[in-house]
Each structure stands twice: as C-alpha cells, then as structure tokens.
Amino acid sequence: MPPAQGFGTNTPRTKLTQSQLNTILLRHQAFRKSQPGGVRANLKMRDLSHLDLSGIDLSDADLSGAKLFSARLTRANLTNANLYAADLRLANLEKADLRGACLRGAVLSEAMLVEVDLRDGTLLHYTPSGEMMPHNFEDSVLTSELTAAVIRGADLSRAKVANAFVMQTDLTDAILRGTKFMRANLTNSNLTGCDLTDADLSEANLSGARLSGAVMTNCAIGRANFTNANLIGAILDAAQLRSPNLSAAVMAKVLENPDDDLRNILTLHLSWIDSGGKDGKRADLSSLDLSGRNLDGINLSAGILQCITLRGASMMGTSLAIADLSLSDLRKVNFTKADLRGVNFERATLTGANLTEAQLGPVHIQGSSSHVWRANLQRARMGMAVLKDADLRKVNLSGANLAGADLRGANLSEADLTGTDLTGADLDGTVLDGTSLTDAIGIEEMTGT
C-alpha cells in the first residue's frame, strides 16, 4: 500500500512509530520548559495514525496536514497547536484542550470530542523557574478556529466552543448535546441532523446556517442570530418557536387555506399516479407545517414531503409508498397500518410515533430490469416509537435510534441495523433472521446473546 499523500503536494506523509514519536515529544516537553536540547515538535505532514498521544502536552506544536486517523489524544493539551488540514477522522480527543488551536480545514468526521475545550486560548510561556505565565503583549488571546472543517458525525457532547470560529463548517449528524457555543460564529455552517439537545447557543451567530432535521430540545438560543438560517424540519420547543430570535429564520410554511389547498394537491396527485405521470401533478408538501391534521387514508405514494412537520398528525392507513419524508418532524404521528413500503425516513424524527402493523418492507419495481426499493430509515430517531407487528423486512435502520421502542412481533428479517441503538427496546417475538446487527447497541441484553 502506498504511503498517504499530503494536502496540496505529491510528497507522501512519513509514518512514525510510537518510539519515534515519543522521542520528538520528549524534546517538545523540554522546549516548552525552556530546557537545554528542547525542540518544538514539528509533526507537519507526518502519519501518526493509531498512535497514542494521550495526556501529552502538544501545545504550540505544528501538526498541519498530519494524519491522526484513529489516534488517541484523550486529555491531550493542544493549546494553540496548528492542526490546519489535519486528518483527525475517528480520533479520540475526549477532554482534550484545544483552546486557541487552528483546525481550519481539518477533517474530524466521527471523531470523539466529548468535553473538549475549544474556548479562547492564551499564549503562555515558561519562566526560568518553571512557572507557566501568559505573554504580556497584544493579541495574546487566540480564538479557536474550526472554519471549513469537516466534523460529520463527530461527538462534541459538552464541549466548550464559546467564542470560536466555526464558519462554513460541516457538522452534519454531529452529537452536540450540552455543547457550549456561546458567542461562537457558526455562519453558513451545516448542522443538518445534529443533536443540539441542552446545547447553549446564546449570542451565537448562526446566520445562513442549515439546521434541517436538527434536534434543539431545551437548547438555549437567547440573543442568537438566526438570520436566513434554515430551520425547516428542526425539532423545536414551543418556547423556542415563540422567540423573536427566529423571526428572520427560514421556517416551515403554513397553507393559507389548508383544507382546499390539500384537496387540490391530492386530486392532482391521484391523477398523476393513475396516468403514470402524464396528467395531474406530483404532490410536493416539502417544508409545510401540517401538525395535528387528520390525513387518514390519503394516497401520497411517491410524494415529496421533505422536511415536512406532521407532529401529532393522524395518518392511519395512509399510503406513502416510496414517498420522501427525510429530515421531517414526525413526532407522535399515528401511522397505524400505513403503507410505508420503500419510504424514505432518513434523519426523520419519529419519537413516540405509532407504526403498529405498518408496512415498511421493500417495493419490487418492474421494468427493463427488476429493482428492489428498500425503506430507508438511516439515522432516524425513533425513541419510544411503537412498531408492534410492523413489517420491516430489508429496511435500512443503520445508525437509527430505537431506544425504548416497542418491536414486539415486528419482522426485521434481512434488515440492516448496523450501529442501531436498541437500548431498552422490546424485542419479544421480533423476527431477526438474516438481520445485520454489527455494532448495534443494547442487542446483547435484549436477545441474551
């Protein structure tokens, strides 16, 4: 296998052994303490994949372009370190100190960043007596920078990111529970599908940010700037919805004459279905707020309902085969006996929804070549949902949250439950023949395996 290539160059990264790294780190510690023989750690473009840097003082080190794939950096001190364009995928940075660090363009997808400190950093130096003191000149305070970084699916729970620059950063599906973003600049960042439960966004700048499908339950948003932020499909508390801070945000739309408008949309959609797309018009209910409405028995097969808000709606017996409801708010919706074959519920929130006897199996599409269209529930949030006796054959539930769900008698044969959270789920009588359970959480205690 060829060595890893560096950014913007054809020069391969040099792979270091743990022993070689330890030698460099010892000299860096001496440098930090102004001791003889001390040399600042220059790990630029080095391959440090899978190495152990736990608890190491790497403050002021140059790690630009370094490959730290799956490296262990637990409690490491990276204050003011240069991590520009570093590869930190799957790295464990739990409780690391990243104050003042430069992470511009870094890749941190699926990294563990629980309780990391990304607040303002202060330039420090050691005195001859070994005491650490701040520099006494202007601009000794540095703001941590995550601008244009890729942090998809990373866990930043309870991290301290106050005052940091997080502009144009990809935080898709990141876990940000309890994260402190006070006064942080998140302009134009992508927070699609993020879990911001109990996070603090007070005085943060989220102008132009994308928050579709994000969970913001109990998230502090006082004096935050949401100008042109996309909150369609975001899960918000009633108090948050009343906040004047959201007046300039892009929110779900409400139909002026919902009964008449829906009747017309459904009539045209049925004509579109019956004519094979030659007449009528395909229904597009994307970004609408239809919370609490009775939509029992309607036919929206193959309809477009992305980011729709249907909280508390009744859709018993409704046909939504091959419909797209990704990133939607479907909390406590009644889908009893609904036809959901081949439906797209990716990143949708179905907490407390009732899918008793719902059909979520595959659709066999006939044509020049036969095709099986599977229901997609990847990363769907289905905590406490009722799926009793539901048909879930071949469904994609990878990364979904089914904690506390009722799956009694459900058919999950040949389904993909890779990384699915089944903690506390009731699997009594559940069919699991040929089901992929790789990295599933809570399955051992449920099945006794």
Automatic annotation (TrEMBL):
Pfam families: Pentapeptide (PF00805). Gene3D superfamilies: E3 ubiquitin-protein ligase SopA. InterPro entries: 5peptide_repeat, Pentapeptide-BTB/POZ_domain. This is Pentapeptide repeat-containing protein.
